[in-house]
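Morning run. Coffee first, then this:
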Amino acid sequence: MVNINEKIHHLNHKLSLPDFEDILNSKPAFMLYFYNDICGVCKTLLPRVKSLIETEFPEILLIHINTDTNRELAGQLRMLSVPGIILFMDGKEIFRSNGMISMDEFQSQIARPYKIMFD
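And here it is:
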């Protein structure tokens, strides 16, 4: 089982489907950020996503997942391109994005469900 107790967690190893389901059932809000090492957009977007989550949405656990290492999980979640972002709250998918997204759109998509859940 994967130990996910940090606010931001970077997975360099494989995340099994049972481990993902454990996180889904135990964490009230978490975001998966799918990337690969050769994706320039992934490298550009990640620091901005991290910063926004840390400052505006601190209750969300951010997990970075390398698609090269986690092809099975990426396929199960239909995350077929990078960068890919999926937000889960209360065990349900709330938001999904593939490719570049403006930070304003990203923030507005998360703000309402976050406020309902944590305010």
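The chain has a mean pLDDT of 87. Good start to the day.
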